[in-house]
Request: fold
Amino acid sequence: MSGHDSSGARSGIGPTPFLQGPFLQMEGVALRYGGAEGTLALNETTLSVARGEFAAVVGPSGCGKSSLMKLVTGLLPCTAGSIHVAGSPVNGPLKIVGMAFQNPTLLPWRNTLLNTMLPLEIVRPHRHRLRRQWESYVAQAKELLAAVGLAGFEEMQPWMLSGGMQQRASLCRALIHRPELLMLDEPFGALDAFTREELWGVLQNLWLARKFTCVLVTHDLREAAYLADRIFVMSARPGRIIADHRVDLPRPRTLEGTFEKDFIDLVHVIRSEISRLRAEAPSAPPARVG
Reply:
């Protein structure tokens, strides 16, 4: 696998030290849709992510990035290979995971606060404590909403919020039960460029404060370089990991830093890899698998 080594001294916080041993481990994973003769979406996919690490997965459209997310969270079983999270095999939906998607999917009949608290009604042990510890949980939810700039919007219905505000609430909902693993599937893809870049900073601050393990699936290479410690590049379908880039840039990262040479060089390297993959991919009828 190839890597990227950023050079030059910088001020600020250096690369985050991680605990030994992988928190997420995929070994030789394959996924086929539609039975033995169906579409092979992933094949021989192998990667590992350390506890507390922020990883991004990028690649050409249809390479299986979203399929990988479904496998890791246990929403789909793999056809071959193995997946372990926190030392245990993934045999079904995980309880220690939070998820956010491109569409915030907030419930229209709930206000912002109650949308944020929804996982507490479902996930153990919170669902058994929620009623008797209601005020404590409400305080936690308000604190989290304030951290993403939504203080004062707790009673607002989703339709009263902008797209960026809805996505902030979606991030809070994904984190309210303090998951060990956060999976993000194009969470900012539908937003305008200014809002998207603002939310990069919001997400980075949440991660720096809580140090959950995070896997971000994205088409935006600048987003991956801004947020991630590791960037995995996937091949065209059937998807597999063909490059693993360590992002050796200090934190906290800023938008100004995205115009610096090391940042631009990393993005160009990965863009060139994906362009080559597109050129080498055999022509075939389009199929949306990830």
Notes: Residues 261-280 form the longest helix (20 residues). Residues 134 and 140 are 10 Å apart (CA to CA). The radius of gyration is 19 Å.
